[in-house]
Amino acid sequence: MAHHIADGVVLNNGVKMPWLGLGVYKAQEGSEVERAVEVALQTGYRSVDTAAFYQNEAGVGNAIKRSGIPRENLFVTTKVWNTDQGYETTLTAFETSRKKLGLDYLDLYLIHWPVKGLFKETWRALEKLYRDGWVRAIGVSNFHIHHLEELLRDSEVTPMVNQVEFHPLLTQQELRHFCRMQSIQFEAWSPLMRGNVVNQPVLMELAEKYQKTPAQLVLRWDLQHEVVTIPKSVTPSRIVENADIFDFEISTEDMEKLDGLNRNQRFGQNPDHFKF
């Protein structure tokens, strides 16, 4: 159980990953993303999640460099985009991302989406990067069970992480169970339902009970489900607020109430029908 912002989970290869990270999807390259990362690092976050597709890796790298925090205390994730998938192209894409971030190595590299006919070759490239020491952990994003099964059939390395859309309206129970059985750490993107947390009466009611915001309640719910969470924000006060989730615990009964909100509702694309 996470009791402090510095707490993390040990992945299946022994690498420690923070339970809480900053997501920077749609944070604009330049001062916007740099400010967000700076505030997060000052607040105590040690994990930042970006992607080639977000086009803000250089800004993330600048903020990290300026922070003065020792590299080994940080956990930096980026992802290979769909148009770069395949063996050689992934190796090239990784090098581009690493240089933009200005880092000697990355902590986690993910396949962004399961591009049909390509993701297994992409995974072979990730395995090579992992074996060669360019990245401390490798994983996938937006993979359903059948994608994972297909990947595991021929892979030499089991993914350490599967980062997917996860929140009270989309609890992904079967996928979570499958990942647990395979020792793949579950990670939530869009944990705050793209701002829709305030539209849920049960959430509002429980937030009041715990004297927390609906966002804080959902992020705590993630942690109690042993799900790594990376709420995205560029608002300094929100970034600080999202980290204030380590001083309370949701009761079993209220966890069940939140689980009961599930409607299998997505705010992002379905990994079986994504159009990018």
UniProtKB/TrEMBL annotation:
UniProt similarity note: Belongs to the aldo/keto reductase family.
Supply the Pfam families for this chain: Aldo_ket_red
| Recorded superkingdom | Bacteria
Q: Which residues form the NADP-dependent oxidoreductase domain?
A: 26-262
- Organism of origin is Laceyella putida
What InterPro entries does the entry give?
A: AKR, AKR5G, Aldo/ket_reductase_CS, NAD(P)_OxRdtase_dom_sf, NADP_OxRdtase_dom
Q: Which SUPFAM superfamilies does this UniProt record tie to the protein?
A: NAD(P)-linked oxidoreductase
Q: Which UniProt keywords apply?
A: NADP, Oxidoreductase
**Name of this protein:** Aldo/keto reductase
